[in-house]
Amino acid sequence: MLIDLHCHILPGLDDGALDVDDSVAMARQARDDGIGAICATPHIRDDHDVRVDEIGERVREIQARVSDAELDVRVLPGGELAQARVPQLSVAELRLVTLGGGGRWLLLEPSPGPIGAELAQTVGTLAKHGMRSIIAHPERHAGADLEDRLAELAELGCLVQWTAAFIADASTANVSLSFARAGLVHVLGSDSHSARAGRPVRLGPAFARLASVCSAERLEWIAEAAPRAIINGDSVPPPPP
């Protein structure tokens, strides 16, 4: 079962799903792609008024509508946590936006621009609270030293989440596959915001692209073993070579 760790499927919270029908259509896209679970990850940042204590109820409401549509897709709680918001949230609030509600793994959005040294400091702060970080869409935060920055974060125990459409895109394949060869592609997310426009809720083509450079064992770890541990709040097993 594929798990989408990054998806803006909740309606009316941020710049994601436009309405409930759009949310159901996104779940349908997921089902058609073989995705069995979606982490709802509304933006937790200053330009969106998302109340973290309401996410759980919003997820339950959408899950009911998805189930009414007879779609075998689980919608799980989560959030896309802006680096700048971390100091503003209590530990209890941080746990409310962990992926899958597992209490451990946070999807951390770097501040705008290239990834800098401050992100590692934020990761260290979260680690002191017993929480681990997944770095969201690094392709949007590329600087000349991106590989070195990601390798440093991986050494600190972070995982790196790439956008599936970026991996699947033939025009960026040389870049994305070079990071895969370096062992810096850990998990994928659709980062879909709507079924009506933009990126669909789809992971399959990206995994097909990764199959050209990853062993079957490594691909299974990226596609299933690591995401499953994340939503369960478990330690992620070491990746195969």
Can you tell me about this structure?
- The chain is of the alpha/beta class.
- It has a single domain (2-231), classed as Metal-dependent hydrolases (TIM Barrel, Alpha-Beta Barrel).
- 39% of the residues lie in helices and 16% in strands.
- The strands form two sheets. A six-stranded parallel beta sheet has the order 3-5-6-7-8-9. A three-stranded parallel beta sheet has the order 1-2-4.
- Helix 5 (146-155) links the parallel strand 7 and strand 8 (159-163).
- It starts with a strand and ends in a 9-residue tail after the last helix.
Largest sheet: 6 strands, parallel
Averaging pLDDT over every residue, what do you get? 97
**Global structural class:** alpha/beta
Low-confidence runs (pLDDT<50, min 5 residues)? none
- Percent strand equals 15-25%
H-E order: EHEEHEEHEHEHEHHEHH
- Please name the CATH topology: TIM Barrel
Bin the helical content. Answer: 25-40%
Termini separation (Å)?
Answer: 22 Å
* Cα gyration radius (Å): 16 Å
